[in-house]
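Q: I have two molecules that I believe assemble together. Could you output structure tokens for the complex as a whole instead of separate predictions?
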Amino acid sequence: MAGEAYDLTIRHAAEALRDGTLTSVALTEAVLRRIEQTEPTLNAYITVTADIAREQAAAADAELQAGRERGPLQGIPFALKDLYDTAGIPTTAGSSFLRDRVPSEDGFVTKKLKDAGIVLTGKLTLHEFALGTTSINPHYGAVHNPWNPAHVSGGSSGGSGAAVAAGSCLGALGTDTGGSIRIPASLCGVVGLLPTYGRVSRRGVLPLSWTLDHVGPLSKSVEDAAIILNAIAGYDREDPGSADEPVDDYTSALGRELRGLRVGLPRDPFWQACDDPVTAACEAAVDVLRELGASVSEVALPLQAATGRLNILWAEAASYHIDTLREHPDGYGQDVRTTMEGGLAVAATTYINDQRLRRKLIEETRAVLRQVDVLVSPTTPHTAPTIAAGDPTRDLARLTHPYDVSGIPAVSVPCGFDGEGLPIGLMIGGRHFDEATVLQVAHAYEQATEWHRRRPAV
Amino acid sequence: MSADPNVIERLRAVAEAAEIEINDEGLRAIAPTVLAMLARPSGVAPRDLGETEPAFGLRMRRE
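A: Yes, here they are, computed for all two components at once.
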């Protein structure tokens, strides 16, 4: 096996665990050493569960030796954003209030991942209560970007992006309400997948905004994202937003050619006001898709610019936090407190009218996705800002939030670097419950380029 | 009730205490809302920080 074990994709590690060239114990030890090596720089973890990981790795090796097959996540070092309930392990949501909160039960997807045989390496740092795009956390410290520690890792799943990029886990889960999976994926040079709203249960995940929250993976490759989605997708009758729709094998379309596939470029507003290196890298990526046989046309989504003026997220977040916000406002970081207090001022009629407008936004997106198969744009208008620059939350989420509002699936895949060596992400969105096509396009692009093979020097 | 001069007068006092400029027309416009909020100052639903059961959601469908 060439290279470091922690640099393997889940697919390659799963193969190595089965052909006898690697054990889960050895892989887990390599990842735990990598965590020790990188944490002083990155701060990607709030809690490292080394003892649990060692036990689970030994159990995975025993099961594999005995021929008990659980699938490709078996024995794979994996980490969760610290928003996911994990029985017996602190789950803080990046908050001072919940520093000592230890759930008694696993959340729905935590259980699914355990059933799939993951080795849990720990809980990952996030923007406080997942409400922000930088993961500069006043209570647990800022997450630093593995490509340049002076820069943010993005957020709110910043620890997930940084840990996957650095190899301090092989895969991770984040959550996405305004872009919180895709933004750190883009800024850290990894793959981040927003599944269709309702595709993955949110039960046992601390909420930010019930009608916008999504659960999804961050990984080193598109195939790994598909593997993780296979393990966590499915109906949960206890989640009122969960969809009782058939679950595909999300790896099945990988490798299919793109000839005949229709790519739409939503120039307005998804390509507007982006930095030049971002636009250039994404235009080059579109050329690659064209060379792979896809037909490319421009499409219009003019209503989507209104997404930035919606109050749904702020109002729902404020309703969850209202008592704590009134009784202990100083316990929140300044940025989160300011945003939440703004949410308290949203009138019920404004919230309802925003949901009415949302229906029009969803219909507009659906109509365009009858003309084309996928939508392609930059993921973020800029590369990672410096930690010193503060909080550009609204602008970093400008291109990602519309897909949370529409509830369509979207993936961010690495598509280049700017002049400072910071990663750029390409976003590919598709029809509701058509993650397979989104992943097919992302995989074809990924395999035609070399960006995903680069690793940060942290 | 919401147009009662006493109510408007007292709302003006509140606005002045908070150093908010608002004319009588504005006070008469918000008075019904303020009175409704006074009658129902807060909801009765439990709101525990740390609750992870999803409260509600949308239903998406496949085309």
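A: One point stands out. The interface with chain A takes residues 47, 49-63 of chain B (CB under 8 Å).
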